[in-house]
Specification:
Largest sheet: 6 strands, mixed
Low-confidence stretches: 1-9, 11-16
CATH class of one domain: Alpha Beta
Radius of gyration: 16 Å
Number of strands: 6
Distance between the termini: 10 Å
Mean pLDDT: 91
Helix content: 25-40%
CATH topology of one domain: Rossmann fold
CATH architecture of one domain: 3-Layer(aba) Sandwich
Length: 235
């Protein structure tokens, strides 16, 4: 894997409404080897992944109001280090794990990467019923993930709720698909701009049930065309 870009410090939530901050987990050996590692519980963090999680926590200007993670080991470990750095207890949520790649699990060949990218890119173009061999369709991914997002919104980001951000430690490919669905940020930006470990996608709820994306990795609006990035395929 190429060197991950360092996460930008999250701004003071007093300047904007509370956000849902999707955080990609820290580095794993699967990321280093560029293998498709999606099955739960998955691989643990590397030493560098631990350092990334600790740095992310240290760079938060204000602790989040709530902290959650997916059930995958790498996400839970990342959240635990953020908990240690901020004092905010981490909770595990079902259904926000990575896209399940089925027969491609554990593979790192060029052919496996091309097949994953072929199907994954088709989802961003609206073909969400296409399916990874033995794995999930885009529709199935969204059907399990989006209700969790809406529940977090209802519980913590609705008008009159507690102030502050909600952090959810999750996974790069699913984060990009969900953000594309909720905010309308379009390909090829969404497919070309992979996320480094502990980079974020940050979304602000808008009236009427919508969302606005205010950060995608190291980019802020407007989100133009990004050059393809050679990076971890799940980023």
């Amino acid at each position: 894997m190429s060197e991950s870009r360092e996460s930008a410090a999250i701004p003071d939530p007093g300047r904007v409404p509370g956000r849902l901050v999707l955080v990609r987990h820290g580095e794993t050996e699967g990321n280093v080897a560029k293998v498709l590692d999606t099955r739960v519980p998955g691989l643990p963090l590397t030493e560098r992944g631990v350092a990334q999680a600790k740095l992310f926590a240290a760079r938060l200007i204000v602790p989040p109001a709530r902290l959650y993670s997916s059930v995958a080991l790498r996400a839970r470990q990342t959240a635990e280090y953020i908990e240690s750095g901020t004092g905010v207890s981490a909770e595990v949520l079902d259904d926000v794990y990575e896209v399940q790649v089925g027969e491609l699990e554990g593979l790192g060949s060029d052919a496996a990467h091309r097949e994953f990218q072929r199907v994954y890119r088709s989802w961003h173009l609206g073909e969400i019923d296409s399916r990874l061999p033995g794995g999930e369709s885009g529709a199935e991914v969204l059907e399990r993930y989006l209700p969790v997002v809406e529940q977090l919104r209802a519980d913590h980001l609705a008008p009159g709720s507690e102030s502050g951000d909600v952090l959810l430690v999750s996974h790069g490919a699913v984060m990009r698909l969900v953000a594309r669905e909720l905010t309308g940020v379009a390909p090829p930006f969404t497919t070309n701009n992979h996320l480094g470990n502990t980079e974020t996608i940050e979304m602000v709820p808008t009236p009427g049930g919508g969302w606005t994306c205010v950060r995608w990795g190291h980019y802020t609006p407007p989100f133009g065309v990004a050059e393809p990035v050679a990076d971890d395929p799940m980023g």
